[in-house]
Amino acid sequence: MRTPQRGRGGGGGGTGCGGRGRGRGGTKKAKGLESESEGGIKGGSKVLVAPHRHAGVFIAKSKRDALATKNLVPGELVYNEKRIFAQKEDRSTVEYRIWNHHRSKLAAAINIGVDNIWIKPGLKVLYLGASSGYTVSHVSDIVGPEGCVYAVEHSHICGKDLMNMAEKRENVVPIIEDARHPAKYRMLVGMVDIIFSDVNQPDQATIMALNASYFLKSGGHFMTSINAKGIDSTSSAETVYQKEVEKLQMEDLRATELLVLDTWEGDHACIFGGYRLPRKQKS
Fold first, then answer.
1. pLDDT tens per residue across span 204-220
2. What is the distance in angstroms between the CA of the first residue and the CA of the last residue of the chain?
3. CB distance 165 to 172 below 8 Å
4. How confident is the model at residue 88 (pLDDT cuts 50, 70, 90)?
5. For 3, left (φ over 0), alpha (ψ -120 to 50), or beta?
6. For residues 213 and 272, is the Cβ–Cβ distance under 8 A?
7. What DSSP element (H or E) covers 156?
């Protein structure tokens, strides 16, 4: 497993999507963008949007770089986010949404320099602890019309915002259920390529493992966010992270990378890894 890193700061079978009758759908650098202020990018300034090394993610280059995703639903805002508009050679417009790494653990991991987020266009993602859908909306942008995001949220208050967001995003399936009981939504979720978990519970490793046993393909990948104090307030954050890695390992969830997220208050980290990965062959 890649050794823990600390953030550098700065910058920026189920019904599924098809069952809901929803549509399916290497971008070149775009110059001369009209932008709205966010993360150092000022309205009306000339900026450059370039593809990030993670497919489906982009970098808006200005005095301070910012992460962005291509808006799956042009003209629609999710949380009053800032946008950048680019005109292509055929004079059509491409709209990007700024992705604030201070509000999204996944964006923070990308900003730090995670090796691989495993989320790509066309893949299916199960997102546990979707909340109001902030990060879910950007994952929706990344996987695009050919992909799907099954978003599970227990809170009915947050779930209302999640469902409103999903009304405009045809690749998002909102599920208002407790992630501890995947049997309750097994008829809604097909097999997925990736599970992202942000449930912030002491038993979150068990929750991840249970959902993986239902939905995650062998050889698929996972990401789980860790709030050390929310799991064990009496131990050091490093001890909690290691224990979580060991718990996951016991469930065939092999950690390959751990990143400490210094852009978040308190002791937070993300663990990335694979599920039922083939054992390395002896030479």
1. 999 999 999 999 999 99
2. 20
3. yes
4. confident
5. beta
6. no
7. helix 156-168
Instruction: Indicate if 76 and 116 belong to the same structural domain.
Output: no
Residues 163 and 73 in one domain: no
Same domain, 112 and 155: yes
Distance CA(152)–CA(162), nearest Å, equals: 9
Are 193 and 67 contained in the same domain? no
Alpha-carbon separation of residue 72 from 23, 76, 129, 262 (angstroms) = 12, 9, 22, 30
The neighbouring-strand residues paired with 258 are 271
* pTM, rounded to two decimals: 0.84
Q: Do residue 139 and residue 207 come from a single domain?
A: yes
Residue 163 lies in a domain: yes
**Structural domain harbouring 78:** 34-99
Same domain for 108 and 77: no
What lies within 8 Å, CB to CB, of 244 at 6+ separation is 204, 205, 224, 226, 231, 271
Tell me the per-residue pLDDT of 154-190, one tens digit each, with 9 for 90 and over: 999 999 999 999 999 999 999 999 999 999 999 999 9
pLDDT at site 86 = 80
Please state, in angstroms and rounded to a whole number, the distance separating the CA atoms of residues 194 and 127: 8
Determine, yes or no, domain membership for 27.
no
Q: Which one has a higher pLDDT value, 240 or 7? A: 240
